[in-house]
Amino acid sequence: MRSYLLHRLWQSAVTLVLATIVVFLGVRALPGDPALAFAGEERDPASLAAIRERLGLNDSLVVQYGKFVLGALRGDLGTSTRTGIPVSTMIGTGLPVTIELSLLALLVAIVLGVTTGVVAAVRRGRPAEWFANALALLGLSVPNFWLGLIAILYLAVGLGLFPASGFVPFGEDPVANLHHLVLPALVLGTGIAAIVMRQTRSAMLESLGADYIRTARAKGASPRAVIGRHALRNSLVVVVTVVGLQLGILISGAVVTERIFGLPGFGKMTIDAVFQRDYPVIQGVVLVTAAAYILINFLVDVAYSLIDPRIRVAGGQS
Amino acid sequence: MGLSLIARRIRGRGAAALAIALAAAVAVGCAPVQQAAGPAAAPATDSFGTPADPAAVQQGGTLVMALSAEPDMLDPTQSRSLYSRYVFQTMCEKLYDLDQNTRIVPQLATALPTISPDGLTVTIPLREGVRFADGTPMDAQAVVTTFQRNLTMAGSGRKSELGPITSVEAQGASSVVLHLSAPFAPLTSALADRAGMIMSPAALQQLGDKFGTAPVCVGPFKFEKRVAQNSIDVVRDPNYYDAAKVHLDRITYRIITDASIRAANLQSGDAQVADTLSTQDVPALRTAAGIQVLQSNSLGYQGITFNVGNVSGLGNPVGDVGTPLSRDPRVRRAFELAVDRQGLVQAVFGGLYTPTCSPISPDTEFTSDAAQACPPHDPAAARALLQEAGVPVPYKITMIATNTPDVLRLAQALQATVADGGFDLQIQPVEYSALLDQQDRGDFEMLQLGWSGRIDPDNNITNYLSTDGGQNVAGYSDAALDALLTRARTSTDQAERVRLYGEAVTAIHAADPIVYLYRIRNFTGVTAKVSGVQVFPDGVVRLAFAGLTR
After folding, report:
1. Signal peptide location in the record (chain B) (predicted)?
2. Reported ipTM exceeds the 0.85 cut
């Protein structure tokens, strides 16, 4: 077990280093100069040279990379070239917003998707199923930004039920925080809810046709118990897998949703940093993201190895 | 409130049309050239807003402004974005300010500067008894400290604006003397912008180059907090010398980059003020109950820059680009004649922007008939000139432009309008940062970009078209124009400066290194819940003395 852990730890460290190199070189391969992006319309050769010097852009790539790595090891990811705010502070405020939005969207997706999926399966061939299918089709077809604008138009501007944009930290005012996140979470969760609904419906239909359901019915179980306790529970395995696979969509959708609703999240921060050629911010967010992915993968692998010793053996031998 | 803005759009044109328009906005693809149908645009009349009536506003409360872009560093020395000036307006007063007629008026100074007959000594009298937000005194020594920082800090955005200042000295506690190596007429206007914002020496000592993270100046409000990409909060400063004029407790600048979302926030009441409204939203907002649209001409321009000599990058000697467009002024002149400015602003901006042929705003005291002279739209003459120049007609040219929907619509309209004049315009959309890079390297034939503008014409012309100009991306070099611009910037006689800048514009039209197209108008939405918001031609939204209506 120890050799397996060491092996995976080594692999993770190498992956992280490679990720930092790829990101470091990748942002520098982008067309456009950070000094120019910072100076904008107010620039002249002398001040551009001073800005390049201040940003360390005149150093060799090796020196710049070395400074980045040494800083990161000390927990210093640098400061935004545009705003002068420390990158770690920006990540510290942006990441919780995106995580909260994603979790709420996932909740919306699961509640909406599973409910309509079950209804569609149980009411197969009836108007309820057509309605649920139509909803799913709509959810899959309508892009986030469109749904976001419509939600702002009717629910925020028209009915005044929710704020049109903005964000209040949970610690400051939990009620206002949720009030601001309801619309973005609905918008972000709807697309995933459609996928969850279709998978739930298929899995439920398969379960409802299985022998054990017939047996449960023959034993006199109530329809609610048959659907809830037997069919749905067995279908949820598929649903959970599908939800897991949607995490990527969730994160990319969060970028668009954050922009529409003006949420100060991780995604919006990344996009803005790329457009502004804000190297320290891009490097910082990608480093944190890569580290999080690698850490999660590492923990999952460790968990697998605990569950199934064959993985541990194979891993140790490879 | 009646039908909302977006609902009108949807009902007016159909959801499918809006979906397509939105898709275009996101994908940065092609968009229709014509301005969307809607209520007819009202004539462009200025509406700057009025000061708050103290009897009609409450004391206290929070005002939320939807800000169209994120300000950069909140450091007057290092800042380079217009949007920082919006925030500075409430917390960093300047030696001088502009009034609604774009005249320079004293703010932290008590009078306009006294300039010695040789133009080499400038004396500025200061207000007395003024304190910074940290309680320390704002005196002549503090002004000297600010000037020295602006003049010496690496990467200072103010150094070039301050011109040939050689030294700064305090004369007692309430007067500052600037010594120059040559007369520099644009200095006073520079002091009415960020170069004139006085920073607390104590805060500078403490924060150094991180001053922008917690700026301390003199202002009706003081900095409280900033959440990156999201918001900036300022709160009332009890130390302010004219505190009785301040009504609000707090102003929150909330960054909302999408124009439609800003308009929606205005309508929903989540924001009481929104800047830079889209010309597509303005007609409907003007007729919406409870919303007032303030408007003023901008000091800047949008135009076309030709590469006439930028062969090895900005800051390097100019050379021969080797194209008919760069070598022969007749080809550029033909382009200017082929452009239908009125048609462009009508098609793309619903007639809400103002066609222009000049880098000098007609709203400033530097304007003249010569400065506003405009070649007529004459496609037949354009074709004739191209034939005279011996180039194949249609003449193919490639223009780089930023890949935003508005600019692409403009580029397509331009493409259509110059076709009649014998030009086959190819559009090459690029992202803004990449465009800046390409233009500085000289890797372009022509490009579309603008300048936000300043009141002094020197800032609008010299940087861009003098041989040694810091932003002479055209690579233009004309000794006669250089001499005119030098005389104009060193003259202390206003009438002479007006005449010289008129001559400079005539010289520019003779060679057309830049073809000026139009001026945007500053459209700012204000709800009826707030009073006292003002916007002058410098585009800065003035919120400091506004209040929530009773």
Report:
1. 1-36
2. no
